[in-house]
Design a protein that fits this description.
The complex is a heterodimer. By secondary structure, chain A is an alpha+beta fold. Chain A is 45% helix and 27% strand. In chain A, strands 1, 2, 3, 4, 5, 6, 7, 8, 9, 10, 11, 12, 13 and 14 form a 14-stranded mixed β-sheet that branches. Classes of the chains: A alpha+beta, B mainly alpha.
């Protein structure tokens, strides 16, 4: 034993243990940075790491997770994380704890150096500002289009009706002429007369007997013509009725066409959902923000799964073969966590305090959904509570409930030409998203409202401006549906009724005047056609005498027989 | 370089226990073959501190086997990978992977596993071979060397002065 053991070596080993003790913190820091970077595919850095051996607790300070798409930005920055931990788990890159404190959470903070692992050249899609092109259909239609540009002969329904009438009359005229000519065929009538004379000449018993059958034959032929003449009369009456109907329709057509054109312009229904145009785009912007926020907190489970076969074998590195573990551990799992931070980086002017349960990067391993109960705070709000459940085990599921009381809004630019000077907002709602599909119900109550309009469009309608200025309370029920990409937002608000009432009053007079202009224009444009329709009708109707006389000709002949 | 060679000869010719020399070679071999990211390496270094093994010889052999490890890398990876993916051994690997300690040893790395196998296979043969060679050298070759003309010539050289200086 004496020969084998190097006693001074024990001293060296002790020195090594001491060194390990002192270097454990930098080593753990390195492990956390590397494991984090590998899992999130973005740079994860730590400012400092402290180990309290007696309490078996770890404190991480200045944790920064770079944004993959914006390397000069941190997706998340956390000032202070402290938790009790198993040192061996930590050395294998697993941060697991029953109790944790995560304080000073901030989003989208600037970085001093690039956080790109691989430089990405993709520039982010710029948010399109649609305000410049914004228009409210109901209001824009108040600037009525020029009558001349609105109406064209080619597209005029009145003109099309005239053309149809003309075609109908022309066709009927042709048909009736042919049928009259066929009936009034002179040769046929002469033939009937000759046959009649021949019958009349009959003398002697045998001739008279033979002429009786000839009379029967002649009578049958004339009866056929009489029935045809009767049918002609009936058809003509029908045609006459249709022509009169069409002519009456044509007469009323310019006015009908004017109504249709105005409807098409949206004057009747365009302003029913003014609240949709006021608040819809704002809400859509919030939904987009929410989506990016979900992306911020979601970690793709697939990132952490890697099989040995997929990794290229690098000389001197080998490959790590992953084994199925009975109870595999996530990289991070804080079962109960006290949270604080602020949402200003997500364009939400709130600081927050609260609790989170089962904060993890891999819910499939923890088999628990992550819940956050947050109290939002700023100088402008009396009370704001948000409850969020994130469950990505089988599908990307997010449930959110919120209750905000007396949130003071000042100088909020709404879409289009509206500004909310001030208001006190009370809102409660729930919102859920499953994968890309979203749904939700939100109740909004704005008290002590001061809403004003800007821009030229409203200058013409002081009544609208006054009505909005007088309104002290705005309520809205918002229903969300659809997907994040194409959200369907249905907003019902008392503002709609107020706005429509005022707007209707304002536009009624102008609308009547415009309608007359449109009617007159159609009538003038189609004056020639409308007048000629009378002559067309007369031409056809005059055929009536000729048609009725046709029947008389054959009746005379049958009388003689 | 001359210093190292002289030291090696000095230890061979000294009264140091052949087992210690053989152990030094084995540790040098193990440390040289073991990849640097494993807890095993740390354990080997600790053992070197505690066990009387010749440090100079260990350092030389370590350097030598670093080169061997680099050359034999693909073979060791292949051996390790085959063992880690062998169906019949899966229960062992799975049970080891449940423990944080074993995870730290990086036993599931193909190169670490290949190195462990190489070390286990080579340790005893190398130990006994080196020990036997040292004994044989001291008993039979050392005196023959002294009689050789080349050795006589070397005694007058710079190398011998270095050797002598180490002796003093």
């Amino acid at each position: 034993m004496k020969e084998i053991i190097r006693w001074p070596g024990i001293l060296v080993a002790l020195i090594l243990v001491c060194l390990a003790y002192f270097f454990m913190a930098p080593l753990l820091k390195l492990v956390i940075e590397q494991a984090g970077s590998r899992t999130l595919s973005t740079k994860v850095t730590l400012e400092a790491l402290e180990i309290a051996w007696s309490e078996q607790s770890l404190t991480l300070k200045g944790l920064e997770v770079a944004d993959k798409d914006f390397p000069m930005k941190n997706k998340v920055e956390i000032d202070h994380i402290s938790f009790q931990i198993d040192a061996l788990d930590a050395l294998t890159g697993h941060l697991l704890s029953d109790q944790a404190h995560i304080l000073g959470v901030q989003f989208n903070t600037p970085r001093s150096e690039s956080g790109a692992l691989n430089e990405a050249n993709d520039s982010p899609e710029k948010v399109k500002n649609t305000d410049g092109n914004f228009s409210i259909p109901g209001l824009s239609s108040l600037d009525l289009p020029d009558v001349d540009t609105l109406i064209s002969k080619k597209n005029s329904i009145t003109y099309q009706r005239y053309q149809a009438l003309k075609q109908y009359i022309d066709k009927a005229k042709g048909t009736y002429k042919t049928r009259i000519n066929a009936l009034k065929d002179q040769q046929k009538i002469d033939d009937y007369k000759a046959r009649y004379k021949d019958i009349k000449k009959a003398k002697g018993f045998m001739e008279i007997l033979a002429s009786a059958s000839k009379i029967k034959g002649l009578k049958n032929d004339i009866d056929k013509d009489i029935s045809e003449a009767k049918q002609l009369n009936r058809d003509f009456k029908q045609t006459k009725k249709e022509v009169i109907r069409r002519a009456t329709e044509l007469k009323k057509s310019p006015q009908q066409e004017a109504d249709m054109l105005l409807n098409k312009l949206g004057i009747e229904n365009g302003t029913q959902k003014i609240s949709q145009y006021l608040f819809g785009p704002e809400l859509q912007a919030h939904i987009k923000k929410l989506k990016s926020w979900i992306n911020t907190i979601s970690v793709d489970d697939k990132n952490t799964d890697s099989s040995a076969e997929e990794q290229p074998v690098e000389r001197g590195k080998g490959v790590f073969v992953q084994f199925t573990q009975a109870n595999p551990l996530p990289l991070v799992w804080f079962k109960n966590t006290k949270l604080s931070g602020n949402f200003t980086g997500l364009d939400m002017p709130f600081t927050f305090k609260g609790e989170a349960h089962h904060l993890t990067d891999q819910q499939t391993l923890t088999k628990q959904a992550t819940t956050l109960d947050l109290n939002l705070q700023n100088d402008l709000v009396k009370e704001a509570d948000v409850n969020i459940v994130v469950d990505v085990r089988t599908e990307q599921r997010l449930l959110m409930k919120f209750d905000i009381k007396e949130y003071r809004l000042d100088q909020q630019s709404l879409s289009g030409n509206f500004t909310l000077n001030n208001a006190l907002l009370d809102t409660q709602g729930n919102f859920s998203s499953i994968d890309e599909h979203l749904s939700g119900d939100i109740n909004v109550e704005l008290n002590s409202v001061s809403l004003e309009t800007t821009g030229d469009i409203f200058k013409k309608y002081p009544a609208i401006e006054k009505a909005l200025a007088d309104e002290d309370q705005v309520t809205a029920q918002i229903k969300l549906n659809g997907t994040f990409e194409a959200p369907q937002i249905d907003i019902s608000s008392n503002l709609d009724a107020i706005f429509n009432k005022v707007l209707k009053k304002a536009v009624d007079e102008k609308l009547a005047q415009y309608k007359n202009q449109v009617t007159e224009k159609i009538e003038t444009m189609l004056q020639k056609e409308l007048n000629s329709s009378g002559a067309l009708q007369s031409e056809l109707l005059n055929m009536g005498g000729e048609i009725s006389s046709t029947e008389d000709i054959f009746k005379d002949l049958i009388g003689k027989l | 370089m001359l210093d190292i060679l002289a030291k090696l000869l000095k230890f061979l010719n000294s009264n140091q226990n052949p087992s210690q020399l053989a152990l030094a070679v084995c540790f040098g071999l193990a440390i040289g073959l073991m990849p640097g990211f494993s807890l095993f390496l740390l354990m080997l270094l600790m053992m070197v501190c505690l066990i009387k093994a010749n440090i100079s010889i260990l350092l030389v052999v370590w350097g030598l086997f670093e080169a061997v490890a680099y050359i034999a890398d693909p073979v060791m990876h292949q051996i390790g990978y085959s063992l880690l993916t062998t169906e019949s051994l899966q229960p062992i690997w799975i049970s080891l992977s449940q423990s944080s300690f074993w995870t730290l040893t990086a036993f599931n790395n193909s190169l670490v596993m290949g190195s462990i196998v190489a070390i286990i296979v080579l340790w005893l043969p190398v130990y006994f071979l080196v020990r036997m060679l040292v004994i044989q050298y001291r008993e039979q070759i050392q005196d023959v060397f002294k009689q050789l003309k080349v050795t006589q010539l070397l005694k007058g050289s710079k190398f011998f002065h270095v050797y002598q200086r180490l002796g003093n």
